[in-house]
Amino acid sequence: MGDGKPVLDVRDLAVTFPSEDGPLHAVAGISYRIEAGRTLGVVGESGCGKSMTALAILGLVPPPGRISGGTVRVGDLEVTALAEDQLAAIRGERVSMVFQEPMTALNPVMTVGEQIAEAWTLHREGSAAEARAAALHMIERVRIPDPRRRFDDYPHHMSGGMRQRAMIAMALACEPDLLIADEPTTALDVTIQAQIIELMMEMQAELGMAIQFISHNLGVVSEIADDVAVMYAGRIVEMGTAAQIFAAPRHPYTSALMETIPRLGARVGRLPAIPGAVPDLRALPLGCPFSDRCPLADTGCRAALPPLADQGGGHLAACFKAGESAP
Fold first, then answer.
1. What was the pLDDT predicted at 103?
2. Tens digits of per-residue pLDDT, 113-124?
3. Which is deepest, 110, 113, 118, 175, by most CB within 10 Å?
4. Of 162-171, 254-263, 276-285, highest mean pLDDT
């Protein structure tokens, strides 16, 4: 995954929520890094810890949850040691986030231009005219047509794809080092989805930023990621370059996710699905959390938690039967 200095360095990160049945480990000791200009795809089903990891990086874990272990470094800053006012100062400036549904993230009573200008003003000194000029420039950069007219549009005047472009313009107004994109294309049709991904790649090439791209869709991730981390039940169960993951997945969960990707030319029918469900994080099995759904699991898998181990070439998998095929 490269040898440069990371923009983001996450080490043994744990996020815990209290519950009547004991602590719920939403994120259970994960480690990864992203370097400038590279994209890490974080994949897994709903409830596996992808979004909670992103919120932890931004210092936005909802109470009563808390970061219960590990460190998060953005460049030379240890985020987990910062006070709230210091965290607020780096959001948008060093790290920005694009959410799945822009209508819930955009302010409905402010024009899109005002919101982009506000994002710039929070971290830059300048006049209202300079903020407006910066916002117009960003609207133009994300290829929203007729920028001067669109500056005065409210979010509900825009299509879903245009709102997502506006969100990206807001997120990139201060040219952050790291962009976290949480399911940014899920609510869009396939054509618009492709345009948004292309836009993010163009902006990354222009700004040299790192991207953490969160998705449940391995098909989308295959188009965008340099490296991939597969999460399950709060843990990373497989990690490697995109070429390693897609050419030869080592964890049965990754293989199962890949089986669910629709393929061009395949006979139309019922799409494959992974049987069962993600386990309750308050009552995880003793061994591998995927063991109840895994076609390869045996008594050893159910007795001990497999470590995330190198399978060769930096390709990591947490599986006692890594690379084996189902009978």
1. 77
2. 999 999 999 899
3. 113
4. 162-171
Q: Token pair for residue 104?
A: 């819930």
- What DSSP element (H or E) covers 266? none
Q: Are strands 39-43 and 210-215 parallel, antiparallel or unpaired?
A: parallel
CA neighbours closer than 13 Å in the CB half-sphere of residue 11: 8
Contact 24, 16 (CB under 8 A): yes
Burial of 111 (0-12, 13-18, 19+ CB in 10 A): middle
Interval 33-60: pLDDT, tens = 999 999 999 999 988 999 999 999 999 9
User: Dihedral (C-alpha) 43, 216, 168, 13: value to the nearest 10 degrees?
Assistant: -40
State the average pLDDT for the chain. 92
Residue type, 120: W
The reported pLDDT for the residue numbered 277 is 86
Q: Two tokens at 294? A: 């895994």
What average pLDDT does the segment 124-147 reach? 94
Tokens 């209202």, residue located: 128
Q: Pseudo-torsion of CA 32, 62, 176, 174, nearest 10°?
A: 180
Q: What does the alpha-carbon distance between residue 7 and residue 228 come to, in Å, rounded to a whole number?
A: 16
Residue written as token pair 């497989």: 238
**Quick check: helix, strand or coil at residue 39?**
strand
Q: Name residues whose C-beta falls within 8 Å of residue 210's C-beta, 6 or more positions apart in sequence.
A: 6, 7, 8, 34, 35, 36, 37, 38, 39, 40, 177, 178, 179
